[in-house]
Every structure is written in C-alpha cells, then in structure tokens.
Specification:
CATH architecture of the largest domain: 3-Layer(aba) Sandwich
Strand content: 5-15%
Order of helices and strands: HHEHEHEEHEHEEEHHEHEHHEHHHHH
Number of helices: 16
Shape: elongated
CATH topology of the largest domain: Rossmann fold
Helix content: 40-55%
C-alpha cells in the first residue's frame, strides 16, 4: 500500500509538471529559411554552439524572434529530449518570483492552497528560457545567481535543498551596460548568463526576408483560419519592403494575420495591409507628376505633415531631416503653415 501511494504521488507530480509545461508553452511551430546574409551568418554561429551546454544571451529589439531562436537552439542541443520551459521575466512580480521560479509547498503563504512546481524543476534536464531577463528585480538577482552557479535552491516553504540541471538561454532588449552602471543589474549575474551573446538583427536590417516572411505568414494564417489562399500584389510587396517595421517580425505576423482575415479577394492590396507608407512608397505607387523641385518639396512636406497629424518632429523623421531643417523649410514656405 505504501509503495502504491508513492507511485500514485509520483504520477500526480509528473502530471502536474506536464500540465504546467503545456500552460507555459508559447513557442510558434514551423520552419523558415532565411535569405538575408546577416541571418545566415547568425544561424551558422548558433549552429556551431547549440550542442555545447553553455549559457546563451540573445539581444535585440522587441519582436525580432528571439524566443523562436531559443526554441531552435534547444532543438539542436543535447538537451533536446528534455523540456523547453519559457518564462517571461517581465511578467513575474517581485513578490511571486521565488514561487514561480523555485516553486512552493502547500501553506507556504496565505494563498498557497496547493503546491506548485517551480520553473527550474520543470526544466530539469532540458532548457530554461528566461525572456526579458533584464527586468528581474535587483533584490531577486542574488537568488537567481546562486542557482545558476551551484544548481541548488529551496522550494518556498521547505528547508530541503533541491538540485537542478538545465541549459540556460536568456533574452533581452535592454542595455546591460547602462543597467550595470546604474546598479540595476548585477555584473556577476550578467557574466553568468552571458557565456556567448548573439544579437538578433531587426527586420529592417534583413530586407531580403520581409516578403518571404510575409508569404510564410499568409500561408500559415490561411491554413489556420481555413480561408482561400491569397497572394501579395506588386504594390503591396513594394509597401512591405519600404515600411520601417518598428515592431519587427511580431508586427509583420500580426499585420498579415489581420490582412488574411479581412481580405475579400485572392490578391492582397496595399489597402488590405493598412500600413502607413513612406513618401518613397507613395510616390512609387501613385507616381509624382512633373513639377519644379520647389513644388515637389512642398508636396512631400505636406504629405509628411498630414501623415503624422502635423507633428513636425515625426514629419522630419519621415523625410530624413532634422527637426531644425524642417522648421527652416516651413519658414521658407510660409503658405504651408496656413
């Protein structure tokens, strides 16, 4: 009877682990073959170290695909047969940090009505991906450093030391140099998570991938929503290549999902994309009539101001000018201010 209860208890714990892994899995499936030279170089570098059990730090702007790269590294690693546990550190409050990362026992605190398995135990013999790691509160960084250095930790509410063995991958869009200088991030923790650092380029740095990615997302969302297959028009292709993509791949994915759902034809037009085009894209799609350079400059300034609701600094950025340069032109063309 004792052996049976131990077995049942073990099965319950295993089931809880599997359920929490499912609850925390947010990695998109699917493969994409990069075409831009910078991504080819990055993937070659990643492939060369993926099998080594070293801590990897992925840096770059929001939406560049760091979580997908972390999943790829896990799949190529020696820990690929183990779990892949992703944690958004920016979403964990300081008061719940220990409970989320190390787990807690029933009754460990007021609202602990049942035991919870921590992320380090869930990721044991696998990969733990700490996204937005720069957002960890300074007061909790020493606890994370300890487990990364020794593999030891205690479940909240228990005095028994636990041991973990994980492959660590971290990601951030933060500036660690500034955070360390301001004493908001421990330098010793930074070196612990940063055995090898890879910067993931923004989408505007890999323009050769924009249209293939858009077509990839179109195919994916047409299949997901069981809609007829659609194609990009020539004008839409030009608009996608010309857009500056502040939200990177995440923005492109959301934009193509929306376009697939709203498109009522088999061709996606610029209107379906619903993005603000730059002056270059506007002139490419509608064509500028022959006019004097002065009139052309006036028209471009007017278009830029209208596009950003008369916000001069934003208009200057669209036109590739400094704010003072645009103000000088507005003084020159007094009629534009009326």
């Amino acid at each position: 009877m004792v052996a049976q209860q131990i077995k049942v208890s073990g099965l319950k714990k295993q089931n809880q682990k599997l359920q929490q892994r499912l609850d925390n899995s947010e990695i998109e499936k699917g493969e994409f073959h990069w075409r831009s030279p910078c991504m080819h170089q990055l993937m070659q570098q990643i492939d060369s170290v993926a099998s080594a059990n070293v801590a990897i730090l992925l840096t770059g702007d929001n939406g560049t695909g760091k979580s997908q790269l972390a999943s790829y590294i896990h799949a190529q690693s020696q820990a690929s047969s183990g779990p892949f546990i992703a944690v958004n550190m920016g979403a964990i409050s300081e008061s719940l940090f220990e409970s989320e990362m190390f787990g807690h026992t029933k009754g460990a605190f007021t609202d602990a009505k049942s035991s919870r398995i921590g992320r380090f135990e869930l990721a044991k013999h696998g990969t733990l991906f700490l996204d937005e790691i720069a957002n960890i509160p300074l007061s909790q960084q020493a606890k994370l450093l300890r487990v990364l250095e020794t593999g030891e930790y205690e479940v909240l509410g228990s005095s028994q030391t636990q041991f973990t063995s994980i492959r660590l991958i971290s990601a951030t869009n933060g500036n660690f140099k500034q955070l360390i200088e301001k004493e908001l991030f421990r330098e010793d923790l930074f070196y612990r998570i940063n055995t090898i650092e890879f910067r993931v380029p923004s989408l505007k740095e890999r323009t050769l991938d924009i249209v293939p990615l858009a077509e990839y997302f179109i195919t994916m969302y047409c299949k997901k929503y069981a809609t007829p297959t659609v194609e990009l028009s020539t004008e839409a292709t030009s608009a996608l290549q010309d857009y500056h993509w502040p939200g990177n791949i995440r923005e492109l994915s959301h934009l193509m999902e929306r376009a697939v759902l709203l498109c009522r034809d088999d061709i996606l037009s610029v209107t379906d994309l619903n993005i603000r085009l730059s002056n270059h894209a506007i002139s490419s799609s509608i064509g500028l009539p022959m006019m004097t350079l002065e009139n052309a400059e006036k028209q471009l300034i007017t278009q830029a101001l209208n596009q950003v609701d008369q916000h001069v600094p934003k208009a200057a950025k669209l036109l590739g000018l400094t704010k003072s340069s645009l103000y000088r032109r507005l003084e020159k063309y007094v009629d534009l201010q009326k």
